[in-house]
Amino acid sequence: MDLSIVVPLYNEEESVKPLYDAITHAVTPLGIAYEILFVDDGSKDKTFETAKSIAREDKRLRVIKFRRNYGQTPAMAAGIDKAKNEIIITMDGDLQNDPSDIPLFLDKIEEGYDIVVGWRHKRQDKLITRKIPSKIANWIIGKVTGVPIKDNGCSLKAYKADVIKSVPLYSEMHRFIPAMASLAGSNVAEIKVKHHARKFGVSKYGLSRIYKVLLDLLTIKTIVSFTSRPMLWFSILAIPFLLLSAITLLIFVLMFFSEGIGSLVIMASLIIIFTASGFFLIMGGALGELIYKTGDMKVHELALLTIKDIKNQ
Amino acid sequence: MDEQKELAVIVPVSERYDNVIGLYNDYKAGIELYTKDYEFIYVLDGDFPDVEKLLEKLYQDGEPIKIIRLSKWFGEATALTAAFKKTNGKNILTLPSYYQIEPSEIIKLLERLNEADMAVAWRWPRKDSAFNKLQAKVFHSIFNSIIDDDFHDLGCGVRALRRKVADEVPVYGDQHRFFPVLASRRGFRVEEVKVEQSQRETKTRLYKPGVYLRRLLDILTVFFLAKFTKKPLRFFGLIGSATFALGGLLLIYLLIERIFLGVDLGDRPLLLLASLLVVLGVQIFAIGLIGELIIFTHAKDIKEYTIEEIV
User: Fold this and answer.
1) Residue A37 has what DSSP assignment?
2) Does B207 have pLDDT greater than 70?
3) Residue range(s) defining the domain that contains residue A257
4) Interface A-B: count of C-beta contacts within 8 A
5) For a Cys staple, A73 with which of A5, A134, A174, B278, CB 3.0–4.6 Å?
């Protein structure tokens, strides 16, 4: 099976050459065809020039240059989009991941997994600012999605190309690919990888704040488990309001006959607010249904793809 | 389309226009300092019979002019987009249909295109009345602080750009003012060039209140487009959860009063407000989710990045 290695780079001029050497050193002995895709995410330093000069000598290296800095997920998405081979491996460009782990990933893919995720079990980062927030985030992600992956943030991952190419990648979604794919029915494996402390430069992609992770998570959860039935999901959201409306109505009726406790106007208004919002949400669900029907991305297609893969083996 | 011109000059004609022929000749003189290989494209944004007649006369005199007439008023940005589609000029220059800068200064912008993808005019020093200056200053300081950018003269329609900018940056409706902002968001190198303001543009302009309101809405639109198009839930979620939290706090306060102080709940208008806020919060959040659904279902068409080069 052929291999594409995608590496986003942002202001990594010192790392480019060692990284390229490490990758070729790790992959060449395997005797498989491979290509390396460096994605220059709008670097301000000489990253692109350095990569370009290597690419001139090695046809297996391709370099994609972004017009400006867009972030890690778009960089990976671009690399994945241009990758030509059946297996895609993504990794960080800062030498914190070790390319010598690549063969382990290939073994797992050959065992039949669709996605193999790295777990930096001896992580070389600051405890307070990076390790603890990431532990919390991973725990929450695991709880909500039901896919207990210990390290969603590790960039070193391997995918079957047709699985990853069918997953929508935008914003900071790369964090959730395993969760998303697994919810759609893919087989996900997790293996321990080496992790090195930074040699050059400073950390550029900080751990995004917990708020963003939470919202993204909610999005993923909604999308994966409910996209195909938004009506149902919104109706569930509407139930408490409709219930409240019914309860208030009951109180209203009781009050009407026993008068003297509170204002009928306020009670009546409450009923109206709750009922209206309940209906609003149901209508929202109908709108969602419409959007999903007319859109061209269907969650069940992700699942179908996986089933097809299993049959092929 | 005919052979490729070095420069396409686009002049959208909207509500405001000066002496058509005089302006044309002035512009022409200014452009010929730079190149002789050019064509003019006038876009009439709606019906302007008198302007059209004058332009047709120029055309019959052998001037390199194309005329595009839009069926109704669409806004200057739509007019520009229409013209972009009708030309294959290597570089593009947009000019207003009235005097904004000294035509002899145009060459400065065109020369800047050697380094930048887009060069926009910055009328400096402003010779305007104090009121005009104040208006512009207030607008730009609000704009720059919200968008976190550094533009000084978005109101000036004189802009030189490379072909690819016109091809890749979609503008429509009233967004022509933000064309440079949108271009720089897409990663193009946009530079401001100081040029001399036209002597004739000094009248104090006081617009109707509706115009100011529209400007404010424009800022909001661009802000939303720039920051949250890919992540609607971040935007709606923040507002929604804040509203929800406020309503929730009010409810808790009311409950505490009810349980511990024995204040009746049934006749308190505050209860209405609290419930309204909670309900509103959930609804705003729900809209955010619908937005995410839209983005997700179209994720295959959305490219977040622009590639400059592949080696």
Assistant:
1) E
2) yes
3) 229-312
4) 150
5) A174
